[in-house]
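Re: Re: token formats

Sure, here are both.
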Amino acid sequence: MLNTLSGRFLVLTTVFVMLAEVLIFVPSIARFREDYLRDHLERAQIASLALLADDMLETELEQELLENAEVYNVVLRRDEVRQLMLSSPIPKPVAETYDLRASGPLSLIRDALVQLVVPENRVIRVIGAPVRDAGLLIEITMDTRRLRTAMLDYGFRVLALSAVISVFTAILLFVAVRTFLVTPIRGVVENMKLYAAAPEDARSLIKPHAVLHELREAEEALASLQTELTHALKQRERLAQLGGAVARVSHDLRNILASAQLFTDRIETSEDPLVRRMAPKLVNSITRAVSLCESTLAFGRAEEPAPTLTMVRIASVVQDVLDGESVSYPEGAVTLECTIPPGMTVRGDPEQLFRVILNLVRNAGQAIAASGRPGTVTVSAREEEAAWTITVADTGPGLPAKAREHLFKAFQGGARKGGAGLGLVIAAELIRGHGGNLVLEHSDSAGTRFRITLPKGDGTI
């Protein structure tokens, strides 16, 4: 009950209403005390008027008037003369004097609270103005026992009534909250559960119908989110099916092309000049097709293992890449350089870093070779406080605008004819597995530069 929104609202409402009633109770009890004292002043004044009417009252009648007024003495000031109109023995000395003519709200509240807190019976003197201008002032002496009893009785009745009002108000608010707030929210929650069970079912999409503006906005936002998510799930399912089909086709096509590669080896031995001239082009075309199939299969498997992080001499990894790539180009066409200090180490998976740097260096070298102008590919690295940075820069012609726009998107970011655009996608995924990132710093007619960032700490870059 208390863990629900309506339950907590019920408790908080009761507490707040009780607090408000307490704040009302304090001045109310002070007002009651003031009225009580003024009533006794008036009753004492009436008793003194009887004495003015008959100056020879008997002692028994005078005592009866005092008891009826619940006072010990009555002093009336008329024509600048103080007159002791009625008197009886005072059981103890006067403890406090209260002048109601000059009492403000704060002093009345303070005196009332003191009266409630102090339980002992005291004798007090009360001064006030006579009613109907029957003198300059009237003064009475009385005890506080009956006053405190009357105040406690009044206070208990006020608090009991406040409790009833609080509970009644809280119940009304509880019902209102459940009707106008909790029930609509519960409907939204039930719809979310229904949608989670079958997100592809269009019948589970929420239909906004709330009356409250805020809930209506929430329902509309949820409806928009569910619609977009349903479309995305359908698209993802179609892409998954398409990916499976492509993988199967690529697998079979790779086997066919592998067989075709074997035949091209024999074609190259032909003595026919036309065949000898066309054979290298055929071999290159088949080789690119096989490479595309293998890349597609590798990307579609999505089974790249997590990197095994060790401290790696990055210069050694880069040099292995450059040694392997240097034989791929005619002498003087592409210069490969490594400016990394031999002793520099980074934290990473050596095999995966080799693949990433190989991809970047190979792309750069192929771009330079395709331009027909000599160029240089330089791999450098530096160590910073929070990360290691590896840079692969070239002096080639730069990436085309379309390639830069879709650089890290599969099958869209290929920069050369026949490329699938998967190399950079896979490289970026490998670096993200290290907690770092791979970005293109710049690419123009003066060259291209990629930056690899590997974090030193446990967090990602």
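Second one below.
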Amino acid sequence: MTTDTLTTSLRTEPNRRLVIGGLGMTQIVAWGTTFYLPAVFANPIARDTGWSLSVVVTGLSLGLLLAGACSPVTGRLIDRHGGRYVMAFSSILIAAGLWLMSQVTGLTGYFLSWAVLGIGMAAGLYDAAFATLGRLYGSGARSAITGVTLLGGLASTLCWPLLTVLEETLGWRQGAQVAALVHLLFCLPVHLLVVPVRQETTTTSNGGVTPAKPVEHQPAGSFFRDRRFLTICLAFTLLAFVMAGLSVHLLEVLRQRGLDTATVVMIGMIIGPAQVTARVLEFSFGRGFHPVWSARVGALLVLIGVALFSLSQPLAAFVAAAVYGAGNGIMTIARGTLPLALFGPDAYGERMGVMARPVLIAQAAAPILTATVLTRLDAFYLLPGLVILLLVSFALLALLPGARVPSPPH
């Protein structure tokens, strides 16, 4: 879809901005109360229950593993029925998981709460949102995906302070209950009222409208017969492993490289704004280029950022955080837009779900494996290993075909 056609689409679909804004807001809540939850609640839970911190954090890994197992089914459901009820169900599941967590007295109940949260994450985080937008807007979903990630990128920035206030004033158990109520009283109505059931027509490149084609189920293995899909799946999985490992352990990595705590904290604060800034720039200037170029640029920035972290110099670490954060922000968009550009909107939801499985498994394993390396060796060995993984990822993306999106005729 050209820029002119996209502009016309935005004007003729008054609900489009509402859908993007609504999903962006629910993504902030969903990410903040699942993936980012342990950053605030892990230590209070450990103190309250007497469990070790590593055991508490293992709950998130369990949730991510289950999310990966359920993602293909979620994508298939969105392809067939649209995202409204799937994402509404995610709000109910996440609320139930948080409420169950607030009641636990033993590890069985705690891990069960993360199991429920994991299924909710499969139906409610970026992959499900991207699949929903792909089903609604077809090949013209790129700007919508970028808009949702612009808002979703604020999840840690907004939710960490709010969760901290809840934990300090009410305790982590009642804080989890408040978060559950937010899902039921805000996210659930937004998903039900704002997200259309599904798109019954498709906008063509010349502005015409045709009936949307029915989506047929494809076996997961059939996607991997396409070498391009296998390539991007492996590339995004390696990137996810590196970024998940660093998101949990970056502060410890920098401490082991000789930086003091105050400097480390300031460096960490740069990443979030850098992500959002990069997404704004991608939205403003990147739409004229094929998403494969966004993916390559994002992967290269992540690679440069991690390499600079190895230098153990404060100035280099500040630059590294900005570059790494920018690359991270771009890669989140590319993960949704690149498959859409390469393979089209047909079976997009199921394709995203199949790709999400190894990505989520990598995100589940990365914090544990990187912690093991940091404990038994140190950051001096970890960072070069991560750089090698990123080099492989960038090389895979460099092998993909890329083309500039043609300009509209005058």
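The chain has 17 helices and two strands. The longest strand covers residues 201-203.
- S.
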